[in-house]
Amino acid sequence: MKPLALAPMLASVVRRDLTLALRRRSDALTTFFFFVIVVSLFPLGISPEPSILRVIAPGVVWVAALLASMLALLRLFAPDFDDGTLEQLALSPQPLVLLVSAKVLAHWLVTGLPLVLIAPLLGLQFQLPASALGNMTLSLLLGTPCLSLIGAIGAALTLGVRGAGALLALLVLPLYIPVLIFGAAAVSASTEGMPAGGHLSVLGALLLLAIVFGPVASAAAVRIALG
Amino acid sequence: MLDAASLECVRGQRRLFHRLSFNLPSGHVLWVLGPNGSGKTSLIRMLCGLLRPDAGEVRWRGEEVRASGDSFHADLLYLGHAPAVKGDLTSLENVRFGLAQTGLGADAHEAEAALNEFGLAGRERLLARFLSAGQQRRVGLSRLALGRSKPLWILDEPFTALDSQAVELVQSHLTRHVMGGGTVVLASHHDIGFAGTPVQRLQLGA
Amino acid sequence: MALNWWKYAAPQTFYPLAGRLAPWFLALAAALAAAGLYIGLFAAPTDFQQGESYRIIFVHVPAAWMSMFMYVVMASWCAVGLALGTRLSFIMALAIAPTGAMFTFIALWSGSLWGKPTWGTWWVWDARLTSELILLFLYIGFMALHAAIDDVRRADRAAALLALVGVVNVPIIYFSVKWWNTLHQGASVSLTRAPSMAATMLVGMLIMALAAWMYAIAASLYRVRSIILEREAHADWVRQLPEANA
């Protein structure tokens, strides 16, 4: 028996959450298939014409990513809150901010990263050119962690609340708007043959802000929810 | 070394307790009693620093617990109402991950020995959701076997759903901890005897 | 001065103070609104391009200003409450929110009314209107979160944290939306491009803004009183009030 330093403890949190996600694959798969299905609905609802698809693709993929991310957030803290493990985390000798960051990282690996990986395939369905596909992947790679970090705040604030799902949407979707705007713009810029670098840089900046401030707010929200 | 000064708890419109104070030196047990709804769990959570008191403060080794944060947590082992056991992890994983979060790294052997002691031999690799309620509680409680290095133990109704053998086991761990200079705070309906150990009784809801 | 402040930080002492102050603010609001509307409807000259319909800006712009100002004030009270733990701060924030939301709604509605005669549509996705819409969601989110949590103390703190997260995000959201707006269309369709401001118009808008501010203070004070009554219903001083025994 030995006291644990910070890094092993954070690794333990990530490993635990990944193990749990692997054992109950339905959560991760639900998010993933939700994303794919929502994206597929838009051509059915709008038009299958290639020129139109190319225009709507960035927005469609991004809105679907927002919604999928939001659905997944309901599983970030709530199970731990219900069975008492979140309290244990709050009583840990290591800073809750870092432990929360570890949880969000694990959560993103399970729910965000798959979206990043499948998006290019979906982009092909929307007749996007190769350059746009690359930018789409990159924008989601930068943007989905943002969504997880910002969304974690809402997830923590709505712990144990009736109707948490709808309330979470109301709280978190307005905060997602900057990520949506720049993420989609990065993709549409490349479909129009314009450079996407500026938009991706802004996304990167938003990600940095989210990394620095998100867990602080989430940890505070967790403490508020616990007492 | 655990002090409470004028604690007050208001739930909804009811004031559950106010001006509640005590001094608990090491080597002592604080036993919190009271009917349901009298604020036992609220008091326990205040002592852990999870709940902010409506008035007053809790001090561990002279420092207010919410302020000292991580250093207080390093000294604390808390077993709450819920067993804090994840159904999708094995008993072994539950013990090891659970202890890791309190800052203690237990290897597989130590964890197995602890589970063994609490009557879960042969069930270490079983997913916790296949265990009965009593067995799940024992998985959570097996952390007591490995938590001796934590001076302060705070337990909320640890004897729920346990058979008499398990109750005795928990009691012996508590006694041993206190004899070794540890401090225990316990909220419990069960009237268990603490042979030879100094016990302060705190009755709520009077 | 510091002593006076702390005395009124208790709901019991603030309650009567709010009751005495509120009618004055209401009276001020009425007077200023009368002056402002006079200027807006009669004194200000007819606009060269937009005719008489532009006069709606005397409602739209002050409402928009107030909606943003009140969100910042609300967030400030939340910050004070989280930092100092004073119950009244949270009550103030909660009291301000509905009025803030109302001004946001007025800004949106008046913006829509302006858009119809000017641009022929009931809604325009320009930067200001879109930001106002998002601000409305932020206000509603604050009130919804507070209402959804049963424990009042936890509700106060959770909503307060949300307001702080919101106030930090509002500039980011505003600039993102503004940028998005310029990306997708020329600057021609914009309700923020008011007709060139004659001095009278500006004065009119400022007076209306002041009127709105006075009204907001009065409404908040009345609401604070009713929230205090709700929360302290079990206290002796409340039970002895004439209004409680009516």
How would you portray this structure in words?
The complex is a heterotrimer of chains A (227), B (206) and C (246). Chain A has 227 residues and is an all-alpha fold. Chain A has one domain. Chain A is built from 10 helices and 1 strand. In chain A, α6 (96-111) crosses α8. Chain A is elongated and about 60 Å long. The relative contact order of chain B is 0.21. Chain B has 2 domains: 1-75 and 151-206, 3-Layer(aba) Sandwich (Rossmann fold); 83-149. Chain B contains 7 helices and 10 strands. Chain B has helices at residues 40-48, 65-74, 91-101, 108-117, 133-141, 143-146, 164-179; strands spanning 2-11, 14-24, 29-33, 55-60, 63-64, 76-79, 104-105, 152-156, 183-187, 199-203. In chain B, the strands form 2 sheets. Chain B has a 5-stranded parallel β-sheet with strand order 6-8-9-3-10, with helices on both faces. A 4-stranded antiparallel β-sheet of chain B has the order 2-1-4-5. Chain B is 33% helix and 27% strand. Chain B is α/β, with parallel strands linked by helices. Chain C has helices spanning 2-7, 11-43, 57-84, 87-119, 127-148, 152-184, 199-231, 236-239, 242-245. The two termini of chain C are 36 Å apart. The interface between B and C is small, with 5 and 4 residues.
Describe this protein with a few key phrases.
heterotrimer, A: 227 residues, mainly alpha, B: 206 residues, alpha/beta, Rossmann fold, 2 domains, 5-stranded parallel sheet, 4-stranded antiparallel sheet, 7 helices, 33% helix
